[in-house]
Amino acid sequence: MNTQTLPSVDELMWSWPTVCKAAKDEWARGFALSIAKQSKRRNWKPSPKQHALMMRMVNEVYRDRGDFDGTDDFPLIED
Length: 79
Description:
The protein is an all-alpha fold. It has helices at 9-22, 26-38, 48-65. α1 (9-22) runs antiparallel to α2 (26-38) and α1 crosses α3. It is globular and about 55 Å long. The mean pLDDT is 84.
């Protein structure tokens, strides 16, 4: 994996409270809460596998929310 193209842990953690609330099953909820707890430790960094799962969970939250699905989300400004 090329780490230059991956979102930083800080970027993922910004969305993490939403991920915790949106977790649909027991495993996902447990993983999300575990990450939230671990992230409070000084100098904590997720393993590559955790980072990949975190990215997937954040992506799923925003994909499922439906925010900004189309061009109708914003009115066009015409002169």
